[in-house]
Structures are given as structure tokens and as C-alpha cells.
UniProtKB/TrEMBL annotation:
Source organism of this protein record: Gluconacetobacter azotocaptans
Homology family: Belongs to the glycosyltransferase 20 family.
Matching Pfam families: Glyco_transf_20 (PF00982)
Protein name, entry field: Trehalose-6-phosphate synthase
One of the record's GO molecular function terms: alpha,alpha-trehalose-phosphate synthase (UDP-forming) activity
GO biological process, one term: trehalose biosynthetic process
Length: 452
């Protein structure tokens, strides 16, 4: 059997305890364990010179990590501007936030070609290649152009809007054509698969998308949550609550996560249900993400302002309604916080999957599980439909859902949680990767396409 070659922009650092937040790295790290595999991507560092960078190679627990540096201008055009300033808002249905520029598209193509050039010498003939996410749409075609004939699959971790929105990107059909170089394209939900296949169809291309919802490793996460709940940090959090219920939010600081809407929803709870004042604390952990992109800086200022305003209006000298942290937190500590939380408040305006929702379920104590309040627009919602589902745009609906969650009896909590837990255990990170790779093995081969 050949090796599995994972390619993604973000690669976790195998030797660090605190990892950057993000579902792709977490989901895949759980999936690659135990096989012969190589993970190729960006190092997170800046390249010194202008020539092609040499990959740095590190092998940890059977997985080889090969990463390359990017120059400042490559990073800016490829990652900040095209991937996160154009594709990210577009695919999250936020066309108005898209800052299109032809020059950034050019850099995006150049960096994809660089990834292909530096990856090809590391490949063996029977490797299977699995490319991840919107940073690398054209990579499959760039590899084919260099003569790679092995199987190449692609997985998109973010949502896919209908063609009527995708076509707002000038030249969107070129991206769709590039996607034809993959033998199989996985997306998170049936809705995403329908939308992508519709885009292929109206452009006269082959429908190659299928839904493979990503999962977590629930056993490992549960064990981490049990350890984390016994940690000194969890003890300190518990003591500081002084009996108040804990509502927890955990997300990268991203406008797709609906954070201002969530803060207003929580404000509506304490405004309209005064019995919760002093009896509940909302802890939002939102590590800064993509801080060089203007829309993310605007969001950060907005949240700073909202937190200050809400706390200023409702705090007592011995009670703070919102605690807001913008640093990453070690995974086991975070898992312990999930276990302690009475309610998880996860209300993205759009999200590919949202692994935090699945992690929260896995972390619960079966004897007294907490309640998940989840947006209809998370990719996890179709699977986790026993959660209290909300429309995240309606602050009053969030407030009512929080009240329902905070006052829910033990029997209902247990009944909902056991169904949710069965779902989280049904599709795991491991089964997701296995299902995709099996389907890739059986997929009809993409026809060879002429080099551009
Ligand atoms: P996204 O991929 O958009 O970031 P997900 O919810 O799918 O969203 O994945 C986020 C991942 O990052 C989860 O595994 C979560 O545990 C982790 N994470 C989120 N916030 C933090 C944080 N503050 N510190 C450490 N890990 C975090
Ligand atoms: O899951 C979506 C995603 O964009 C991943 O591709 C990415 O690794 C993660 O979120 C975190 O974002 P970034 O890599 O830009 O820090």
C-alpha cells in the first residue's frame, strides 16, 4: 500500500502542546495517526530569499511533516488576500466582504504552482494524495501539469454556496475547471455537495462532489476532558464561578462565527430574564485569527466594544456577565472547560462543520450532561439536530434558547445528549478519513487534462 500524502496550507506543529485553533489541523491530526503518511504545507514562517524554498522535514510518531516557508508577498497575496480576503467570505455567503483583485489571484496561482514543484520530488509512484481546503483549489491541476498521475482527492472544509453566489467571483469557472483534476471532491454536507455539483453542471463540467461530514476522536477527547476537568485551571474556573452556571463559547475570532450576534443574544438573556443575573457567566474563548486581514481587525474592535458595553451596563461589583479571552488555550484544559460548562453556545452565521460542537458533546459527563445551543447554519446541525437549534441572527431567539437550556431538567438533558453522543460516535475523524479514501480508491479517474 502506498503512503498517504496530506497537503494543506496549515500544518500542525507536531512538537508543540498549544496548537493553532482550527478544525482542519485538529480533524486531520486525528485521522493520519497510525498509517504511513506525509503531511505537506506551509511552515508558518517567512522565507529568507526569493528562490524556491527547501522543505524542512521532521518525522514524529510515524508521520513525516514537510513544510515550506513563504515570502512576505506570497503570504500576503496567497493567504491573506486571495484565500482569506476573497474565497473565505465568498464561500461563507458574505459576498459583500470580498475584496477582489486580479493580482492576488495571480499570486494564489503562483503559490499553488510552488507547492506542486516542491512536493513532486518528495512523491513516490504509489502515493495517494489528499489535498485540503480553499487555499489549494488549483493544486491538483498544478500537480497533473507536472505529470502526477496517481490518485488525487480534495476535501473542502468550508461551506459551498449556490452558483448564483459563487459566480460573483470574476472567473469562478476557472476554479471549477481546476477542481476537475481531482478524482473525488469531498465536502461537509449534502447541501454543499448539491451546490458544488450545481456549479459544475451549469458550467458543463463533471459532478465530482460528495458529502463526507468530518468528525473528531470522541474517545480521546472524552479522556482529555476528564483529565482537564481535574486540572488546576478547571479548579480555579470552578471556584471563580461561585455557583453560577457556565455558558461557554469557543471559536476562532472570525466573522463567520456570529460572535457579535451571540454577545447580543446573551445580553438579551440577562435583559429579558433578570432571574439569571448574577447566576450565570458567559465565557467566550476566541483566539485571534488572521489578524492581518482588515475585516478581522474590525471584528476584534467590535467585540472589545461590545464586551465593555455589556459588562459596563450589567456587571455588579461581584459579578461580571461576560469573560472574554482572545488567547489560545491548551487542548486538554479547554476540554476540561467544555466538561464543566452547563451550556455550549455555538452560533455561527455559516460554518463548514464546527468541530467544537462535537467536542462539547464528547466531553460531557453522562450523569449530568450540559446542553448544546447550536446554529442551524453550522455544518454539524443536520447531524446534531437534538441540540437546541437557533437562528443566530435573532438575539431574542438566542436568549430564549439559553433560558430553555439553563432551566432544562436532567431527564431531558440526558435524553438529548445520549442521541447527540451516538451521532458524534457514529462519524469520527478516523471513519471520515477511511470513508473518503475508500471512495477515492473507487472513484472514476479524472480524465487527463492538457497543461495550460
Ligand atoms: P474552524 O475550523 O473554523 O476553526 P472548528 O470548530 O471546526 O472551526 O474547529 C476549531 C478547532 O480549534 C477545534 O478543535 C477547537 O477545539 C480548536 N480551538 C478553538 N478555539 C481554541 C482555543 N482557544 N484554543 C485551542 N484550541 C481551540
Ligand atoms: O477549517 C477552516 C480553516 O480555514 C482551515 O483551513 C484552517 O486551518 C483553519 O480554519 C484555521 O484558519 P487559519 O489556518 O487561517 O489559521
Amino acid at each position: 500500500m502506498g503512503r498517504l500524502i496530506i497537503v494543506s496550507n496549515r500544518v500542525p506543529s507536531p512538537r508543540e502542546r498549544t496548537q493553532p485553533a482550527g478544525g482542519l489541523a485538529v480533524g486531520l491530526r486525528d485521522a493520519v495517526r497510525g498509517g504511513s503518511s506525509m503531511w505537506f504545507g506551509w511552515s508558518g514562517n517567512q522565507a529568507e530569499g526569493d528562490g524556491d524554498p527547501e522543505p524542512s522535514i521532521d518525522t514524529v510518531e510515524g508521520v513525516t511533516y514537510a513544510t515550506i516557508d513563504l515570502t512576505e508577498s506570497q503570504h500576503e497575496g496567497f493567504y491573506q488576500n486571495f484565500s482569506n480576503g476573497i474565497l473565505w467570505p465568498l464561500f461563507h455567503y458574505r459576498v459583500g466582504l470580498m475584496n477582489y483583485s486580479r493580482r492576488d489571484w495571480q499570486t494564489y496561482l503562483e503559490v499553488n504552482a510552488l507547492f506542486a514543484r516542491t512536493l513532486v520530488p518528495l512523491l513516490k509512484p504509489d502515493d495517494v494524495i489528499w489535498v485540503h481546503d480553499y487555499h489549494l483549489f488549483p493544486l491538483g491541476q498544478a500537480l497533473r501539469d507536472l505529470g502526477v498521475t496517481t490518485r488525487i482527492g480534495f476535501f473542502l472544509h468550508i461551506p459551498v454556496p449556490p452558483w448564483s453566489l459563487v459566480r460573483s467571483l470574476p472567473g469562478a469557472e476557472l476554479l471549477l475547471e481546476d477542481l476537475q483534476a481531482y478524482d473525488l471532491i469531498g465536502v461537509q454536507t449534502d447541501e454543499d455537495a448539491d451546490n458544488l455539483n450545481q456549479s459544475f453542471r451549469v458550467n458543463g463540467l463533471t459532478e465530482r462532489a460528495r458529502a463526507f461530514p468530518i468528525g473528531i476522536d470522541p474517545h480521546e477527547f472524552r479522556a482529555q476532558a476528564e483529565t482537564g476537568a481535574d486540572s488546576g485551571e478547571a479548579e480555579r474556573l470552578h471556584a471563580s464561578l461561585r455557583g453560577a452556571a457556565l455558558v461557554l463559547g469557543v471559536d476562532r475570532l472570525d466573522y463567520s462565527k456570529g460572535l457579535p450576534e451571540r454577545f447580543r443574544g446573551y445580553e438579551a438573556l440577562i435583559a429579558r430574564y433578570p432571574e439569571h443575573r448574577g447566576k450565570v457567566t458567559f465565557l467566550q474563548v476566541a483566539p485571534v485569527s488572521r489578524g492581518d486581514v482588515e475585516e478581522y481587525r474590525v471584528l476584534r474592535r467590535q467585540l472589545d466594544e461590545l464586551t465593555g458595553r455589556i459588562n459596563g451596563a450589567y456587571a455588579e461589583f461581584d459579578w461580571t456577565p461576560i469573560r472574554y479571552i482572545t488567547r489560545p488555550i491548551a487542548r486538554d484544559i479547554l476540554a476540561g472547560f467544555y466538561r464543566m460548562a452547563d451550556v455550549a453556545l455555538i452560533t455561527p452565521l455559516r460554518d463548514g462543520m464546527n468541530l467544537v460542537a462535537k467536542e462539547y458533546i464528547a466531553a460531557q459527563d453522562a450523569e449530568s450532561p450540559g446542553v448544546l445551543v447550536l446554529s442551524h447554519f453550522a455544518g454539524a446541525a443536520p447531524e446534531l439536530d437534538e441540540a437546541v437549534l437557533v437562528n443566530p441572527y435573532d438575539a431574542d431567539e438566542i436568549a430564549d434558547a439559553l433560558h430553555q437550556a439553563l432551566t432544562m431538567g436532567l431527564d431531558e438533558r440526558k435524553a438529548r445528549w445520549s442521541k447527540l453522543d451516538a451521532e458524534v460516535r457514529r462519524t469520527t475523524a478516523g471513519s471520515w478519513a477511511r470513508d473518503f479514501l475508500l471512495a477515492l480508491d473507487e472513484a472514476p479517474r479524472a480524465p487527463p487534462t492538457p497543461a495550460a
